[in-house]
Amino acid sequence: ISANFDYYGLDSLKGAFEAANTSYGAVTLAALRADWKLFNMRSETAEKNYSVRLEAEKLFIPGVENSARITLTEGLELFSSVTGRSVPRLDDIEAQKIKADFNIKKSVISLKNIEINSNFLNLNADLAFDGAALSTESRLEAKIGPNEIRLAASGPLAGPQITPELSSTLNEKLASALNSLAKLLFNYFPREK
Fold it and tell me: What are the φ and ψ backbone dihedral angles of 52, each rounded to 5 degrees?
């Protein structure tokens, strides 16, 4: 890990981390790798330049961990609404691979190269939220059991163009989910007004 300080404190941070065969209670993880480059840390979001990469292998969450299962079930219910098909019941959660890149550059907060390969879900996605324009450029491909879906959202967060065209109710649900995620990110990294 390397850090740079100026007169006012920490300005940038660069580093990497690896762990193997870790556990937290009944939750286990075979491998975790992360690296990060954070520049202009005390600056406004528009001036920040962050890059974080995360990769995990063989994550196991037993079915008794109710909080994880409840959170995932809520997300899967939206998937079920879009496909019109039921999703599998979640018991133990086993993910062979989880990976994502997080970036902030010029007011755009993005989660790119998201990949989840698990016993109930295979997902690939890229999500980007422009805090200055209040817009999104996002795509998602997911497979749960035999059910597959491919979605894209582009344009203003208040009413992005979602393809393929869905019912107005489903469009509103998906737009609401994107808005909720954007608000969460903007809470941590406030946008300039």
Answer: -130, 130
128 touches 101 (CB < 8 A)? no
Cis peptide bond N-terminal to 164, omega within 30: yes
Phi, then psi, of 42 in degrees rounded to 5:
-95, 0
Instruction: Please check the confidence at residue 66 and state whether its pLDDT lies above 70.
Output: no
140 within 8 A of 151, measured Cβ to Cβ: yes
**% pLDDT > 90, the chain:** 46
- Segment holding 20, helix H or strand E: strand 9-24
* Residue in the block written with tokens 């016993």: 119
Report pLDDT digits (tens) over 116-164: 999 888 999 999 999 989 999 999 999 987 888 899 999 999 889 999 9
Task: Find tokens 């079930």 and name the residue.
Answer: 73
Q: Which of 39-48, 62-71, 120-129 has the lowest mean pLDDT?
A: 62-71
DSSP class of residue 40? S
Beta strand 161-163 with 147-156 is: antiparallel
Question: What is the number of helices (H) and of strands (E) in the chain?
Answer: 2, 10
